Amino acid sequence: MIQNIISFKNVSKNYSGNYVLKNINFEIKAGEIHALVGENGAGKSTLMNILFGMPVIQNTGGFEGCLFLGEKSVNIKSPFQAMEFGIGMVHQEFMLIPGFTITENVKINREINKDGVLNKILGRVFGKRFRILDYKKMNKDTRKALDTLEMGIEEYTLLAGLPIGHMQFVEIAREIDKTNVRLLVLDEPTAVLTESEAENLIKAMKNLTKKGISIIFISHRLDEIVQAADRVTVLRDGEHVVTKNIADTNVIELAGLMVGREVTIDRSLNERSSSNEIILSVKGLEVVMPGERVRGIDLEIRKGEIFGIGGLAGQGKLGIANGIVGIYPGRGEVNFEGKPLPLNQPKQVLKRGIAYLSEDRKGVGLLLDESIELNIAFTAMQIHNDFLFNLGLFKLKNSMAIRNNANKQITDLDIRCQGPLQNVGRLSGGNQQKVCVARALTQNPKFLFVCEPTRGIDIGAKKLILDLLYKLSNEFGMTIVMTSSELAELRSICDRIAIVCEGKLAGILKPDAPATDFGLMMSGVKGAALSC
Prior knowledge:
This protein is an alpha/beta fold. The protein is built from 19 helices and 22 strands. The protein has four domains: 1-85 and 182-260, 3-Layer(aba) Sandwich (Rossmann fold); 96-177, no CATH class; 263-353 and 445-532, Rossmann fold (3-Layer(aba) Sandwich); 367-444, no CATH class.
């Protein structure tokens, strides 16, 4: 009988009463590759944070349920303790030191000291830091780990300047070099690899399982999941959907399970007036946005439509709006209302009648130490000289106009506050988001980019904002491009939805297209591209 190395029993986790994991039950068998899949927000990261003892779990009240290591119940309270239990984790973000060699990165905090009397004396007199390292042994260990991954580069090579794919292999080599490793968590390890590198990694993963090491393989690439894994667990909205043998499923079924049941479109989209006029066209757009890089996208947005942009985290969906508006460097050809739109010049873009609501409302969207009324009026004042008295060389604020506009927006958007003079930083997340929307609307835009408009707000505020966006398009003819990780929300109000995968356009779908089509596109399955 194959022993379970890790078992999750009724594992739940809540943040401020909001459950992000709900009674998770499944196990990882010794020597298997167990895939973990799900959309953004499905709970994958939170579950792995629990397994690896990350501080965010302990600092927010821990978790409910039990975690078993073999037959023993454990509560892993730190990454160091997880490593003592034989659990290694390769995170999406690299944790490497460019100025060190591959060996030094692999052996960091596990260095091997030379034997001998002199080294012992140096350690006693000056401390362990001043002992002489045995690079011969460390290089030998590192070479063994690199050979397991079939990585032909020399172990004494400096990390700086290596291709990003090589860095991913170094991260993995560091974990498998640990003598007690029993379980290895790989979080999107193929995201930065070429196709051939990904194939080599999958081969190396299978070799590791032959040595009894279990692997949790987190990936959005379902074709790689089917190729590599023995079993797969699907999470959705913090719940355990299913655990299946790979032999009993396929990418199409997994895509449907990941996205969930078909969405009932409750908007009267068929009653909306359609237009073939192109208001915004994009050709060859590339955007250098950290974690959301765009690698050449062509789009055409029709006047008056609500156009959705979806995809998994880090695939480039957020980079499109940020690049067009000029928040991050971009290049390519963008035309608005038949005329070229300058890239990398945010003020000129806003002057053309385009408004932008950032996904980072606290870092970019708001002046947290200023009043509600100033936040709402600020961009219109800067871009269009609204709410100002022009006195030649001087301009004065029209305080009454600012106040009247703020009071109207507070009423229209149901902003829960003490009044227009209250600091925005003291509002709840949902009300802060409403202030961002109010600021955008105050610019009287023809075209609105809105990124993650419902992130971090309660269900009531979500409905109000989605209803408002629908009304702006349906009744006032505003063209809206909505970027969101919430596919169900995109499908509830959008006319068309573009899915972005690995910085490129996977395809464009109608909101009532089968859930499986969305899942396949989001997972980058070859041959899944469709357009409407």
